[in-house]
Amino acid sequence: MLEMLIVLAVLLLALVLFATELVPIDLTALLIVGALILTGVLTPAEGFSGFSHPAPVTVAAMLVLSAGLIRTGAVARLGQKVSAMGGTSEFSQLFVIIPVIALLSAFISNTAAVAMFIPLVLNIAREKNLSPSKMLMPLSYAAILGGACTYIGTSTNIIVGTIFASGGRPPLQMFEFSGLGLVLLGLGAVYMLTIGQRNLPSRPTEASLTEGYRLREYLTELVIQADSPLLDKTLKETNFSQQMDIEVLEVQRGQHKLRLFLQDIRLKGGDILIVKGNLENILKIRDTEGVDIQAEVKLSDRDLKSEDVALAEAVISPDSFLIGRTLKEANFRQRYQATALAIRRHGSQIRDKLGRVRLQVGDMLLVQVRKGVLGNLRQDSDFMLILEESQGNDFRFTKLPIAVLIFVGVIAAVASQILPIELAALFGALLMVFTRCLSLRQAYLAVDWRIVILIGGTLALGTAMVKTGTANLIAQSLVGWSGFLGPVALIAVLYLLTLAMTELMSNNATAALLTPIAISIAAQGGWDPRPFAFCVAFAASCSFLTPIGYQTNTMVYGPGGYRFTDYFKVGVWLSLISWLTATLLIPRIWPFN
């Protein structure tokens, strides 16, 4: 009984930490493992067994396989064809984009697919004068529904499948998800092309980043006069930053552009400073410091970029170090070797007093960064997505046929049951590296280690729930509360419970915690556990109500200029359709007896 109370306490603590993200989700997962081992609920071998479980190994290998397809240009080539096939309206573009992103997401990581398609959709919107906010949320929803159509389409299905099979039950098959998944995808596509389109906000696209962030009136050139009191002073010694809240982005001296170690550069007569700041403060500097304003100069993207410097947009991830901090507190320039020019939040721009703004999930930062550093930013877990106007095209096109062949081989091996999913995925990932479709470093970078640690930790909690009888206790409560209505009612209740939890915390954590409970529910009533496992898998994936319930929703949050309520307004009907459809069809596809 004591062990059960400990597990319930750890479960409650985990739910609170996952929902509030007071600490990063991967750290929460490790805390779970530590607490269960220290309290004696699990032995060290049992506690760490989650990390050697097939689920995290399979998810990591599938991410490497996805990266191989992306690095060889397979996804980019497909994206180019989508752009050419789409028409001149949001409806005609989505008519092509939805099936393509759904097909991709059924076989590669849906987050990787969405990351590749967001710049494509933004470019289409810019070129054809369409509203990106009408297309990006449907892009995310289609990727979610597409990922639910196969065993490997989402890490959620892999987690449910491996937990289900670990009890000696017949494993879930590659395309066993496809029947219900395709029905949900079809209904979702119809909804997004009709009612969903009407409910989505229409926010216009901009021709350039400086226009999009309304920066032109905040960027100007200051010329240091020969008699200026600023002569021979370093920028650190001026009152530009501390008192006037003016940021110097660059010093032009003759033909040279100085960007490194700006604070230590001693100013000279004739120096041109590219500055960002409030117009009132810039006028004060002119009157007191002996500088001239180049009033006729209208700075654009081209003025802020060069051969080695780029403008990019960085989307803050849900567990970023930056959340709740200001740029000054985070020491942003030194930490990331980049300069933040503006912030876009829910479609509005913040350009003034950036150093005092507390950052939030989904905020988009317009940054000026050296191209050599851009790759580091792309791999930094603090940013979910890095968007650059001129996306790199360093694809290994010569390796494209090899990557596709490897991937098709993995799918065929799993579908024909020649190899278990974890072994086929591992061999495929190794072949991607051995054939140089991607380097070993790129393979390591492709793995989201936070998800791997999260899965390992939550699997340990699932083991503890089964071992101590906690899963059975929760299952008994659910069966006692609604079991008298029959197993179909239990499917409806379990779906809603899973849906509610995945909107508040990670879909992977939800799947790992609820799958043992779902199996216990089936045992309580003497039913086949298969329909209950599939119920958890689909409900944990079909997250449409909030921008934080599923990673792809968070990825489009900033670029689409959405507000939190936009997701509920559009997603509530899609969630209702999915719930009713799943409740009616799950018992027909997977009978209870």
What attributes does this structure have?
593 residues, alpha+beta, five-stranded antiparallel β-sheet, 26 helices, 56% helix
Main β-sheet description:
5 strands, antiparallel
Quaternary form: single chain
Distance between the termini: 33 Å
> Could you tell me the number of beta strands?
10
Judged by helices, strands and strand pairing, the structural class is: alpha+beta
Strand arrangement across the biggest beta sheet: 3-2-4-1-5
Number of helices: 26
Overall 3D geometry?
elongated
Mean pLDDT across all residues, rounded?
83
Question: In which range does the helix fraction lie?
Answer: 55-70%
Estimated radius of gyration:
26 Å
Residue share in β-strands: 5-15%
Structural description of this entry:
The protein is α+β, with helices and mostly antiparallel strands. It has helices spanning 2-20, 25-38, 44-48, 54-71, 74-85, 90-105, 110-128, 136-147, 155-165, 178-193, 195-199, 209-212, 279-289, 301-304, 332-336, 371-379, 400-415, 421-434, 440-446, 449-468, 470-482, 487-504, 507-525, 530-541, 551-557, 564-589; strands spanning 219-224, 247-253, 256-258, 272-276, 291-293, 309-316, 338-345, 348-350, 364-370, 383-388. Helix 4 runs antiparallel to helix 9 and helix 20 (449-468) packs parallel to helix 23 (507-525). The longest helix is centred in the C-terminal third of the chain and has 26 residues, at 564-589. It is elongated, with a radius of gyration of 26 Å.
